[in-house]
Amino acid sequence: AADDVIAQVNETLQEAVKNETAKFHPTPAGQAVAYTSIMLMAFFPIVFGSFKSVTHQRKQKESGEKPETMTRKDAAMFPVIASGALFGLYIFFKLFSKEYINLLLTGYFFLLGVLALAHILSPSFSRVMRCLLPSHFYHWEYRISFQRWSTTQSDECEEYFDYRFSYDDVACWICCCLFGVWYLWKKHWVANNLFGLAFAINGVELLHINTVATGCILLGGLFVYDIFWVFGTDVMVTVAKSFEAPIKLVFPQDFLESGFGGSHFAMLGLGDIVIPGIFIALLLRFDSSLNRQRNLYFVSSFVAYVLGLALTIFIMIYFNHAQPALLYLVPACTGVPLSIALIMGDITAMFKYEDHPSEEKTSSADEQQELEREGNDVQKTTPKASPVSTKKNTRKDK
């Protein structure tokens, strides 16, 4: 019996040594290439999406479109909702086969990815196709509309959907669908990253927080959320490794050895790009409202993001443990621009700034300006008393 126990212990030790030997140990050069590539990929959607958000805001104001912005209540509730969704996915992966869950999620993100990619590439496709195709192709435009009309009142109509497109849009959709099929078929990390970048750019462009205070509430809540779910439990890491969907940017740490066929990935979640990114985009729109030649707060917050992300990666490699990126990004992205605003004397203007002022505030501001103009007109038209008449009145009083 003793010999059997000794033999079993030896087999266990040999298996442990074998697993440790087979475990991948990235080289310093491989880590440097992987994490540098991830950082560069993270910077692009923040910069590109921020400038697109300025254009999107201007188009909304010109068209009179009612914007959808995040309120302070929404910002405060967002970490709670995100925690519920994250823990729900964790339970699903524990109870059910992750193959079936990922199959369902793959189809869902395929549709979303094609939509996001088409939204990004459509302007470029339009310019290219207009150079390639004859001009008579662009004399026609197609339209798909879904409306509800009243049978009693001919003027009463409710529009649910209205989409206009031309040949270049059709070409863009075909190319994006073919790319999506490649993603479904191969699940290659390059396809994952292209879909992920499209999601991140659209998120930074279209997700607007109306005020700096709302942004601080959102980032503060997610700061606590990220620390708890990474350090307090294994939930975040488990879901990130089990979730086969383009919700993270990846790059193989064995790229120097295996090239595009590498399989040992470094990763960064899209939330660590989009969440700070929408705050940085807000600061760019605030810079635009100041009508200054330099985008001081955008540049400072972006540099702070770069340094915060670099610090996250350094600590993660040094301690060989997953790190909550928002632990470093939130203080950097909020503390630096707020400190500069305090020094420059812009802190009041920064917290008063609103992307889309409410109708009540807009009307009250217009009324105040109108009253000021009327007061100035009254002062200009009121005749001033002459010195002679004043003197006469003074003598009479005496």
TrEMBL record:
Topology relative to the membrane: Multi-pass membrane protein
Keywords: Endoplasmic reticulum, Hydrolase, Membrane, Transmembrane, Transmembrane helix
Coiled-coil portions: none
Residue ranges of the TM segments: 32-54, 75-93, 99-121, 170-185, 216-240, 260-284, 296-319, 325-344
Biased composition (Basic and acidic residues): 355-377
Annotated region (Disordered), positions in chain: 355-398
A Gene Ontology term for the protein's cellular component: cytoplasmic side of endoplasmic reticulum membrane
Compartment(s) where it occurs, according to its Swiss-Prot or TrEMBL record: Endoplasmic reticulum membrane
Gene Ontology molecular function terms on file: aspartic endopeptidase activity, intramembrane cleaving
Biased composition range(s): Polar residues: 378-391
InterPro entries: Peptidase_A22B_SPP, Preselin/SPP
A Pfam family this chain is assigned to: Peptidase_A22B
Record-level GO BP terms: membrane protein proteolysis; signal peptide processing
Family: Belongs to the peptidase A22B family.
Protein's name according to its UniProt entry: Putative signal peptide peptidase
Upper classification of the organism: Eukaryota, Metazoa, Ecdysozoa, Arthropoda, Chelicerata
